[in-house]
Amino acid sequence: MEKLWGGRFKKSINKEMEEFISSLSFDKKLVKYDLLGSIAHAQMLGKCNIITKEEKNKIVEGLKQIQKEVQEGKVEIITGEAEDIHSWVENKLKEKIGAVAGKLHIARSRNDQIAFDERIYLKEEVLKIQDLLKDLQKSLLFTAQKNFGIIMPGYTHLQHAQPILFSHHLMAYFYMFERDKARMQDLYKRVDVLPLGSAALAGTSFPIDREYVASQLGFNRISENSLDAVSGRDFILEFLSVAAILMMHLSRLGEELVLWSSKEFAFIELDDSFCTGSSIMPQKKNPDTVELIRGKTGRVYGNLITLFTIMKSLPLAYNKDMQEDKEPLFDTAHTLEKSISLMSKMIDTMQVNKEKMETSLKDDFSTATELADYLVKKGLPFREAHKLVGGMVIYCLENKKNLEDLTLSELKSFHKNFSEKALEILKPQSAIETKDSFGGTSLKRVKGSIQKAKKILKQK
Ligand code: ARG
């Protein structure tokens, strides 16, 4: 295997070490981007008369041939063939066009090359993830609309708290993913910076045109400082951080789907096509897909910590440690894409059990707050009303009754201001209707929130 740096060495490389330092097995994923960057670089070298027009044409032609072979799957990148993807491309080019291939590396280094490859790769991934998030939001919106009006218990501490609309619960996730999308959009600006032209660390003595390369490659800006450009990986850390938050949201939704599809809840049934059975218990239907999404959150968090740890004490500029940045990056992008895509398919296909949700509200005292609010509206301080209704709950529990079972005279025995009306407000439907504050769970508010969400999706 020919080395790009062989000239300085008398002895050949230790075989075990050669394998150890090679990144080809994973950075081959970047071949498409490495070729794009190389073509633009060669064109710029020609345009700036750093190489002749003929040399430029030969190099670009050769690179385009490799590009075609890669696209058509005619060439296989075999681990062991080269130290990394940059060396692989240069070796291949030399095979095709001979010694002139050696002119491609004028005014560049693998250090600015890899920073570029990662940035252009990430730009594509971020756009893909934003689109997938949009699909997931559509699934949530569609399901919220389809099941509009269904009431379920809202929880705090996983205890029945107050009735809410099922659609309101789903829309909570819509807005979480909207923020995740916005975070992706924001970090994109910082990824969209071209490092090419920084060379190894110091810039170059050749009269290059970085702006031209940026425009050829669709980059918005060029980097300001050559050291920063080749040694900075905060653009990946930012992506991994935003990915960790997004994965946490997916995991929370996943956890709810696991709970809701259990016998205890039975609020939903996930489609067979996203579940598995048990090899021993014939009756089992396990929510594996959502469990795995929840579980994979671990590796996405881990990838963030991995890169933080790699970077934390590195002196400027490039250090070989940084080669370890790629697998966490690829793994997180892949995990996110699969998880978001599957999550939206599961939301689309799940069955919602209206009856189970609504009957679970019986006997749960989740409208007790309504009674307290009722007394407050009659002039009682909230604390006093809260205490009084607490006493009513104890009374009901001791007498095996629900709040709804109380007669008017029983109510009056707790407070003279109770009237027939108080029995009405104990119904979940009425509890929902009263939550008409902005952002609340009343039918009108949730309908409004769904309308707004539709507009948001149309915007981008
Ligand atoms: N394979 C290397 C990496 O991924 C590319 C940059 C190598 N630069 C160098 N000076 N050895 O980090």
Q: Keywords, please?
A:
binds arginine, two-stranded antiparallel ribbon, two-stranded parallel sheet, 6 strands, single chain
Can you put this structure into words, describing what you see?
The protein starts with 14 loop residues before the first helix and ends with a helix. The protein has helices at residues 15-21, 24-27, 31-47, 53-71, 85-97, 110-146, 166-191, 210-217, 226-231, 234-260, 288-311, 326-349, 354-359, 368-377, 382-398, 408-414, 420-424, 428-434, 443-459, and strands spanning 151-156, 159-165, 193-194, 221-222, 268-269, 351-352. The mean pLDDT is 95. The strands form three sheets. Strands 1-2 form a two-stranded antiparallel ribbon. Strands 3-4 form a two-stranded parallel sheet. Strand 3 (193-194), helix 8 (210-217) and strand 4 (221-222) form a beta-alpha-beta unit. Helix 4 (53-71) crosses helix 5 and helix 10 (234-260) runs parallel beside helix 12 (326-349). It has 460 residues and is mainly α. The chain contains 19 helices and six strands. 39% of the residues are buried.
